[in-house]
Amino acid sequence: MLSRPRPSIGESTSLSRTARGFATLMLAAAVAVSSSVSAFAQGVPVVRDAEIEALVRDYARPIFKAAGLANDGIDIVLVNDQSFNAFVTGRRLFINTGALVTAETPNEIIGVIAHEAGHIAGGHQQKLRDQLDRAKTMAIIATLLGAGAMVAGATTNSRGLAGAGMGVAAGGGEMAQRSILAYQRTEEITADRSAITYLNATGQSGMGMLKTFGRFQSALSLAGTQVDPYRISHPMPQERIANLEVLVKQSPFVNVVDPPALQQRHDMMRIKIAAYMQGQAAVARLMRKNPASLASRYGDAQQTYLFGNPGAALTKTAALIKEQPKNPYFQELRGDILMKANKPKDAADAYAKAVSLDPARSGLLLVSLGQALMAVGTPDSIQKAVTQLNNGVARERENADAYRFLAQAYGELGDIPAADLATAEGHYYAGDYKNAKIFAMRAQQKLKRGEPRWVRAQDIVNYTPSNKLK
Ligand SMILES: [Zn+2]
Question: Residue 266 above 90 pLDDT?
Fold first, then answer.
């Protein structure tokens, strides 16, 4: 299920304070920004989905390893935006759903990730990237994402593309803009070369990257009403594309295509984004090419779930499960449909299967399982919900939604200090520090001084922006 985390970005009053704080840091990093950064940032719609996050992580992992950037996991941040954008900070990869749905092959996205990894490995715009990497909560990520887009806007402005709809800071910051441009040119060439190195090291073609960049370079896209942020932040003069083409075609892997199984996952991802974010016409467009493919039937099942009736959606999903019994996301869809059909017990079984089949160990599936168990409503199932939700936050420390459900479950079991602490955690990771402290102190009143939960509550009480919890 594609879902938007709650509390939604922009709701919390403390977020705007955080946003202004980071806008200041951005200025310190010699980036031209306008005073509207915080307002801009609050509109950034982050979405979560176990399947898409796992796929993009699979695209990124070998590239990050080749670039010497892989230590442990890679955080994937999906942005619900139809324009094309992607950037990497440390081990966090931001990518627009628009980029994923546009790319016809995994290789096109992998190429962009390789180029971005080249920027990271080259230490490009290090100060900016350091700030981004320090961001721990979704709220702050969103803020910084807005600031990142403003960097793109600054570049637009000085390239005479002002009025492209980027909310560009008019005037001011000319020096900063010029210096960004000056070093950007060499950085782009360096990142292209690094990207080819990583693609070669992983036995992959650079054709996808070439295709994507070529598309940005073409005059056609200039005429469009929507200008992709990625294109603006990565200048693509003809000469750069020509040089890249030489490098790509020199590679012994130029003709390597994505493995069929990966292409299938990519097709399924595209149709899912279309179904949840774009509507029925977009799904129909993607299905037209091959209506009988697994991806098309997946899209059809999702549409039937979203716009049709649960019974028909269940039948279609059962056929998908029969074809790929080990696909965790077919089980997840089945769980979503059963929840909609008000059959939480069966939904819990489906989600439990999804969890057991998920090699990516997503916390999201555990949260869905926890919700279904809570909906069953017996003391036993609520106790199980607590266990699964705690497993979920163990995998995803910053999932504010999970804490909200956990608080509710503890509440129903009558464990009030645990409910208060979970509520405090939820507010904390949503960036609402004021309410986080209120609930942490409330929890402490009923906890034994010095016990682990009391200590954790104390950490939240003690929190100030300069000693942010790890
Ligand atoms: Zn670049």
Answer: yes
Distance 354 CA to ligand 1 centre (A): 37
The pLDDT confidence band at residue 227, using thresholds 50, 70 and 90, is low
Q: How far is the CA of 110 from the centre of ligand 1 (A)?
A: 14
> Higher model confidence: residue 252 or residue 10?
252
Cα 114 to ligand 1 centre (Å): 10
Most confident of 9-13, 91-95, 220-224: 91-95
Q: How many whole angstroms from 129 Cα to the centroid of ligand 1?
A: 13
Question: How many angstroms separate the alpha carbon of residue 117 from the centre of ligand 1?
Answer: 9
Nearest to 140 by CA among 27, 48, 38: 38
Residue 275 has pLDDT above 60, yes or no: yes
Question: Which pLDDT value is given to residue 126?
Answer: 62
Q: How far is the CA of 239 from the centre of ligand 1 (A)?
A: 15
pLDDT number for residue 228: 65
